[in-house]
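pipeline: protein-struct stage 2 | run 1193 | DUF4388 domain-containing protein
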Amino acid sequence: MALQGNLDDFSLPEILQLISVQQKSGVLKLTAGSDVAVIFFEGGRVVSTRDRRRNARDPLKTFLVQTGYITEAQLKQIETIEAESRRELTDILLTGNYVPGDQLSGALEKQIQDTFHQLLTWKQGTYHFSGDAKTVPKFAVNVRLNTEGLLMESMRRLDEAARYKEVLSSPAMVLRPKALAVPPKDMTAEERRVLPLVDGLRPLRDIVAQSKLVEFEVYEAAHHLLELGIVEVSLGAAPPKVTPIAKDEVKAPPARSMSIPVAIFFLLLSIAIGRWATPALYVRAERARPAPALSSSIDDSQRLALALEVYHSIRGEYPTELRALSREGYLPPAAVSFFYSRFDYHSDGTTYSKTAR
């Protein structure tokens, strides 16, 4: 059986179902631009998504490192052994005691499922199926997975991922533990990996990288923890890349009469973009580097006024004491101590007064 064409005319789920129903053996090659993927079948069941002729791009290597089965250093050792001995990857993993056999079987199944999920996002490209049983590879560890089961799970993941990303809309989004929330005892293994990484500092993309899970599993776990009320959004619609707060360096000080209006404009803009990002970013900057010296290029009274307006814009009231600015993360403690020594401050929450000492 030979089958080829464009994914525009014949969708990947249709191709997979046809091969499964007819219980064919062979290899399906998919090409989309520079991306190439293969799926090997035996009797209509999936046995591999790896091409031994493309060792440098073996998806199993990337998956094993990403999910923590092996380290980058171990991968280099394995690739050296591959080059010198021409032995197959799973054989090296087993005989070198890098990954136990039962864990390797589970890793292969997860890697195939993740590959299916990724391939179902391809809307354009070409396919070619060659029904030759001789092309089906044999490995030190082999699996035979139900094609329709893989397909149904992948389609579920696509639907759920779209739903999760309506809430977790940016990889730069930051989550934090919700105050007084008690994690349930029946959390999934994925949720137990994700929850310790939710600290109010790491963006979602860092949690994905550090959790030893695939992206979908992280989003699924994080979304469920949000639904349970265990975590909450700390930093929402953030820019594509979050960078530390810049040092307080002003090349040309603005005119004193314009400094507060300009500051308020950028304040409102940052609130609209960051959904109350300012407190978390101040905390992150404070932890990431020593507190900077206060710049003398902006009037101290104006600096304090700006901090108070930030607090008021987010809290809806002014702080009753200056120390609340550092206690709640709006200014570094060093800055608050400086202002405390320079100004007498009084507030009833609605208005405030400050006078130089």
